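Here is one chain, start to finish.
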Amino acid sequence: MRFIWTFFIFTLLNSALANSAESNKANFSLKIKGVYVGNLSFSGIQDQGIYSVEGAIKSGGVFRLLNKQEYTAKTTGQIKESNFIPKSYVEYRDKKGKKSTASLSYELGIPQIRLYSPPRQTNSETIDPKTQKGTVDPLTAIYATLSDVSNGKLCELNLKVFDGKRKSSVKLVPILKERKGLIMCFGEYKRIAGFSKKDMEEKTRFPFNLFYKKHSKTKYELKKLIIETIYGTAVLTRKNNKN
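Its structure:
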């Protein structure tokens, strides 16, 4: 399950947002090979080019008894020309009782590690945060990807994500197809650096599909994400509660 959690904490949309105050809430269930394994939720607000988000990913069902995992985070930042620019990020993780905390701030788009506990184990391949200008934190990536798209610009993305230790990328292809009333596009998640040797040898590229529902001429809502993993097909599905 290491990859599944990494992917959904390091995920993927480049949406243009209105300057007026706007809130976004969503709740998704995660299944692997048809078995419920967890839940992803977030609550965000945007006002005059400023955004603030709280989010969580928690294991659930029988899987929670076998492999309890939890991720909660908060992030704030600015939105300029449809681009998310983080200002601060804090995360808490609990994997089978092993707890960790990370805190980042950003200066001129460059991440600064304020706290990383337990401390990062550094070596010649450790990523220098000073080289990560323009990257976004994991929760900003989740929010930018899963919240409503208000300008109809679907699947035009080349996003870099950095959590203080690992770097990944998400690229969407602007080729749209219709599937059972939903609009589908293609993407790829890629591990870049900071991952273990085992992770990199296991697999680095993971193709996926996004499925949107069109509500109006300018509004699209993500309904489902499907990705093939080394554990089988993983499906992230939006629950029916209203945003």
